[in-house]
Design a protein that fits this description.
The protein is built from 9 helices and 12 strands. The protein is of the alpha+beta class and about 270 residues long.
Length: about 270
């Protein structure tokens, strides 16, 4: 698991506020004056600069890429793509949250991972040309930028740094998948839940006076699906964490981590 460095606001965490969720949404499909088009391209370029996939590219290269992205908005619960759909588009989240899931033969869903602002998804099918291996659904009001397979491949041929960054992104996904398999095999339910909460705190946490609040819309069913267990087991583990003063569960269901070291101990047992 990635070690989290202490944050300036808290002695426990490196909390990463989801500041980009407050950004203005831009309608790329509406006809605009030339100055409006230039402003939108500049805004998209600014977003790309914050994404690891595009680190190291020049401003000119980023401007070229930005012109090929189109925007789309999704409401909470709206399907972005289904498992088995053709993979024609890579997605970049500007604001909101997306849940990736696989569906069983009887229609039951198992959540695989959550993505938030400045993260990409849907990249595998864009490269190998195979149907989508999982589905994607918006968890909140979500704004994404889309880049077609043909244009993404063309940019990778033109910009070697982009191709190198993409290989690094794939390696991160492989390592994450390996870690998830290890969690399922080696950790009990409290350990798996502790690891998932720490992961969410690192990626989506906002530091506050009580601790680090996880800025995600999560139900107990979501947590159960993401940790490979049942909602009842998650309810029991959360209750134990609360009694041990490891977390605070707020009235609307959000979670604040008070004692991350205590959660880490559950992982190292």
């Amino acid at each position: 698991m990635t070690t989290m460095k202490p944050a300036r606001e808290s002695p426990h965490f490196a909390a990463k506020p989801i500041a980009s969720q407050q950004k203005q949404a831009y309608n790329l499909s509406a006809p605009q004056a030339n100055s409006g088009a230039r402003n939108r391209a500049m805004s998209r370029t600014g977003l790309l600069k914050q994404v690891p996939l595009f680190v190291g590219l020049t401003d000119a290269e980023l401007d070229t890429l930005a012109k090929d992205f189109a925007q789309r908005q999704f409401k909470p619960g709206e399907t972005i793509f289904q498992q088995g759909d053709p993979g024609q588009v890579l997605y970049l989240i500007e604001m909101g949250q997306v849940r990736i899931f696989v569906a069983g033969e009887e229609g039951q869903e198992t959540s695989v991972i959550l993505y938030g602002p400045r993260e990409i998804f849907g990249e595998l099918a864009v490269i190998d040309g195979l149907p989508r291996s999982a589905g994607a659904v918006a968890m909140d009001n979500t704004v994404v930028y889309m880049l077609t397979r043909d244009r993404f491949r063309e940019h990778m041929r033109r910009f070697p740094q982009l191709a190198l960054n993409f290989l690094k992104a794939l390696s991160v996904r492989v390592r994450y998948s390996t870690q998830q398999v290890g969690s399922l095999a080696l950790l009990d339910v409290p350990g798996r839940l502790a690891r998932k909460l720490l992961e969410f705190a690192e990626n989506y946490g906002v530091a506050g006076p009580e601790g680090v609040r996880i800025n995600l819309s999560l139900t107990q069913s979501d947590l159960a699906s993401l940790t490979g267990t049942t909602r009842e087991s998650i309810n029991k583990a959360l209750g134990a964490f609360k009694r041990q003063n490891l977390i605070i569960i707020h009235s609307q269901g959000s979670i604040t981590i008070v004692d991350p070291d205590g959660l880490r101990e559950l992982i190292s047992l």
